[in-house]
């Protein structure tokens, strides 16, 4: 029913990935087009697992924008919250893993369509029908997208949605680390569910310690569930009344892109129908095990969207 809708707000873009790995961007002989953007990945993760999802954001009215909208629809995600900008183009990212193991990013965003979403363009009817509103746009810093972001959060909250946040830190996109921290923290205390990676935890606390104390230093009174994902080490969880860790699954990892988004999509797909698990540790642990399985499967295939699991794939891994 429409009461189980998860709305994911943010950007969708195309990652250009070199056809040969271990070379710099300048040396790449060619690129594969991989659709991505964390909020869009989350919406598709939800839908592929059988849930109801909508994506809210702006694309360019160009070949890439229409290709991305088509990918959402093919995957069963509602495109009713998508706007097409008549002037600016769809965002592009060039991402490569160099021989020295460092990730190199280059973005086409000057400005791209996603950054130009205006508050008056939002499909508020769709946003107000969300039971879970997930956000984590990398365009938080720029207007008018920032105002649209805040407006969408407010509308969802007023209509009773559970708010979920993943900061999706991509430092090269921010003018400075200080500004990134400030902007992330400006929307931090609105979220009732927050998922950070170990890297984001270090960045936000300014300490290289990953432990309960550093995680809980980020706690705020509205928070119901804080998650720290640790890649092959699984995740840690914190609520008002309990905390703990859930181990990851051992799989043959080839590309970790999208693992965190699969994890979030799996979790939200369960929370949308029953928030009482937030007060029930054994049941929450079961859900986090499922979310870990979904993250693990996503690492076994190249790319984010093509690698997101179906429910039966996840259940197979859980059965062992
Ligand atoms: P992000 O993609 O946001 O950095 P993580 O890499 O921590 O997030 O991945 C999210 C979840 O996916 C982890 O908590 C874990 O359960 C699973 N996962 C990620 N990498 C691996 C891996 N190499 N092996 C098994 N599971 C993984």
What would you note in describing this structure?
The protein has 320 residues and is of the alpha/beta class. The chain has one domain (2-11, 37-87, 116-319): 3-Layer(aba) Sandwich (UDP-N-acetylmuramoyl-L-alanine:D-glutamate ligase), CATH 3.40.1190.20. The chain has helices at 38-48, 63-74, 124-128, 145-158, 177-188, 198-205, 212-216, 259-271, 281-298, 311-319, and strands spanning 5-9, 13-18, 31-36, 52-60, 78-85, 92-97, 103-108, 132-135, 162-165, 193-197, 225-229, 235-238, 243-246. The longest helix has 18 residues, at 281-298. The structure holds adenosine-5'-diphosphate. Adenosine-5'-diphosphate (ADP) binds at residues 197, 229-232, 234-235, 248-249, 251, 253, 256, 259-260, 263, 292, 295-296, 299.
Radius of gyration: 18 Å
**Category from helices, strands and their pairing:** alpha/beta
CATH architecture: 3-Layer(aba) Sandwich
CATH class: Alpha Beta
Bound molecules: adenosine-5'-diphosphate
Element pattern in H and E: EEEHEHEEEHEHEHEHHEEEHHH
Helix content: 25-40%
**What are the low-pLDDT stretches, counting only 5+ consecutive residues below 50?**
none
- Spatially, the strands of the biggest sheet line up as 5-4-1-8-9-10-11-12-13
């Amino acid at each position: 029913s429409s009461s189980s809708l998860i709305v994911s707000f943010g950007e969708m873009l195309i990652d250009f990935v070199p056809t040969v790995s271990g070379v710099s961007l300048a040396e790449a002989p060619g690129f594969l087009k991989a659709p991505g953007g964390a909020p869009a990945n989350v919406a598709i993760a939800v839908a592929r697992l059988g849930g109801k999802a909508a994506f809210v954001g702006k694309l360019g009215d160009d070949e890439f924008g229409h290709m991305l909208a088509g990918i959402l629809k093919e995957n069963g995600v509602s495109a009713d919250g998508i706007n097409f900008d008549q002037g600016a183009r769809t965002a592009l990212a060039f991402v490569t893993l160099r021989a020295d193991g460092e990730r190199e990013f280059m973005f086409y965003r000057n400005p791209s369509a996603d950054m130009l979403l205006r508050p008056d363009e939002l499909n508020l009817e769709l946003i107000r029908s969300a039971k879970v509103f997930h956000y984590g746009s990398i365009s938080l810093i720029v207007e008018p997208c920032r105002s649209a972001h805040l407006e969408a959060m407010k509308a969802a909250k007023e209509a009773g949605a559970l708010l979920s946040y993943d900061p999706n830190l991509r430092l090269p996109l921010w003018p400075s680390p200080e500004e990134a921290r400030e902007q992330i923290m400006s929307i931090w205390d609105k979220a009732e569910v927050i998922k950070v990676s170990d890297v984001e935890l270090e960045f936000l606390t300014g300490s290289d310690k990953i432990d309960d104390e550093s995680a809980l230093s980020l706690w705020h009174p509205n928070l119901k569930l804080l998650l720290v994902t640790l890649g092959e080490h699984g995740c840690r969880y914190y609520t008002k009344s309990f905390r703990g860790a859930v181990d990851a699954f051992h799989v043959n990892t080839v590309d970790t892109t999208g693992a965190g988004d699969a994890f979030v999509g799996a979790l939200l797909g369960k929370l949308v129908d029953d928030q009482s698990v937030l007060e029930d540790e054994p049941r929450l642990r079961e859900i986090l095990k499922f979310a870990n399985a979904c993250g693990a499967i996503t690492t076994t295939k190249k790319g984010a969207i093509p690698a997101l699991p179906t429910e039966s794939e996840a259940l197979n891994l859980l059965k062992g």
